[in-house]
Amino acid sequence: MTDKIDVKKVARLARLNLTPEEEKDYTEKFQQVLGYVDQIAEVVIEGELSTKDESLQQLYRPDQAIDSSVHPKDFSPYLENQFFKVPPIIE
Amino acid sequence: MKLYQKPIHTLHQQRLAKEVTTEEIAQSVLQRITETEQRLGSYLAVEQSEAVMERAKAVDQQLQKGEEVNPLAGMPIAVKDIFNIKGQATTCASEMLKNFIAPYESTVTQKLLAQGYNLVGKTNMDEFAMGSSTEHSAFQVTKNPWDLERVPGGSSGGSASAVAAGQALAALGTDTGGSIRQPASFCGIVGVKPTYGRVSRWGIVAYASSLDQAGPMTRDVEDAALMLEAIMGHDKNDSTSLTATPPDLMASLRQEVKGMKIGVIQDLDLSACDSEVQRVFAENLETLKQGGAEICPVSLPNLQHAVATYYVLAPSEASSNLGRYDGIRYGYRSPEAKNLGEVYQLSREAGLGREVKLRILLGTFALSAGYYDAYYLKAQQVQNLIRAQFQKAFTQVDAIVSPVTPTPAFKLNAHLADPLQMYLSDAFTIPGNLAGIPGISVPAGFTQEGLPVGLQILGGLLQEEKIFRLAHWFEQNQTLSPPPLAL
């Protein structure tokens, strides 16, 4: 099912930086795992098989604003004057 | 028998009869941690002894005053480091969350707090629960207490080794593809994955949300029932938590196995299993037959595709769930990042481990344009096929039994370089997660080498009572002669 996968491209999509050594290692492991996973293509799906799980309950609740007991200052080391400080975006 | 070796329900009866105090129980467990932890490595964080002793003392004072006390009150219990405990680190065994302090409490630990449990520490695991040996922890390797050269299983390996070694009386784990049942089997303890939605996921770090489920890891089935009864129930903070009435598990323990119909999966090729695992399973079936259970073949033709299906669905959800670790709001941020793109890429490069990155890559690929239909959508269809086949099987039988894993605990480093071999160690547990059904792993025998082997009992959706009934009967009616632990 799969031709040669461009792991570097996938890593870019996932916002992961890979070293050349990692790229080689992941290319190998990727081929190995996908080679195994590709067997699902052989499974014949007869008729209309929904991808939804009918047994799952659907719970709805009204959209309500509530006061959260958790504030970013409780978990973020990057907070400055209520904002998350990041490096400059525009170069 | 030392106090730390006993189940919670026995110790509770003993303290009600004034034969033992909660302080003595806590002292015994703390002492055991001091003696063994350096060799075992179960814990990422251990509570201050004074705090543990103080909580135990408070329970003893309640008992002295004649107040009613819960069985779990004051009992030293360990928690996998994936549950938020307010004010404490939740690292998920990742560099990414090494310095993350949980700002709120998970529902599960909140419920245990309501029972007065005595937190003894947070246990090691595979990073973000991705792995089957606990070797993917960013911080340390945990050993199997039966053989220190072997893995305890994973991802809840620290919880399993802690309970097996007596470093805790019970523990919490999470199970996405077998992460409670497989380490329970490798370490010779009881582990339960409830029906998906029985237990709230609020405050548990997400791996694959549609499959993740928390559950107890305990010394015996009755303790598992006590713990699960304490943590089940609907939670408005988790819309996937079930509104169904929680079952009366303690009542189910008093029932016979006679007349139960027990399915054996005819499509499962056991010849590829370790020969000792095959022997133990054959003996287990004999025990069940002698107890008056009827063994029936059941057909689950697509079970062979379960591992492949799981390794599309779980990584896909993981790639989405772990997108939040971007170095912006919390977690690790690379000090070398000079612009926004680098904040993401360099922080994730340094903060996430190899297996986690592999699964993020697999998931990102399966969800990417051009591949989505062939992988993600197709995997969902196969999942539904497997689910339908289980539902049909459970119209014919009360429970389905199989070995928990194809082999007993493997050696450290055995599968580290070969992800596929590692993945296949969950071949018998993954189907339960894909179908959303409950499963329990019960100690079932030992290999010639003295390694524990478990029996897996799967039930239909919401049928926890049946698997507890069977598991308890089986536990009480088999003869196990465990060899001594390695420490």
Key descriptive features of the protein:
heterodimer, A: 91 residues, mainly alpha, two-stranded antiparallel ribbon, 2 strands, 27% helix, flat, B: 487 residues, Amidase signature (AS) enzymes, eleven-stranded mixed beta sheet
Characterization of the model:
The complex is a heterodimer of chains A (91) and B (487). Chain A has a domain at 1-25. Helices cover 27% and strands 4% of the residues of chain A. Chain A has 2 helices and 2 strands; from the N terminus they run H-H-E-E. Chain A has helices spanning 7-13, 20-37, and strands spanning 79-80, 83-84. Chain A has a two-stranded antiparallel sheet with strand order 1-2. In chain A, a hairpin with a 2-residue loop joins strand 1 and strand 2 (83-84). The longest helix of chain A has 18 residues, at 20-37. Chain B has one domain: Alpha-Beta Complex (Amidase signature (AS) enzymes), CATH 3.90.1300. Chain B is built from 16 helices and 11 strands. Chain B has helices at residues 8-16, 22-40, 49-64, 107-114, 157-165, 181-187, 221-231, 249-252, 275-290, 306-321, 340-351, 354-366, 373-396, 419-424, 430-435, 464-477; strands at residues 43-46, 76-80, 118-123, 170-175, 190-193, 213-218, 261-265, 294-298, 399-403, 439-446, 452-458. An 11-stranded mixed β-sheet of chain B has the order 1-3-2-4-6-5-10-11-9-7-8, sandwiched between helices. The radius of gyration of chain B is 21 Å and the shape is globular. The two termini of chain B are 15 Å apart. The chains are: A mainly alpha (91), B alpha/beta (487). The interface between A and B is large, with 51 and 65 residues.
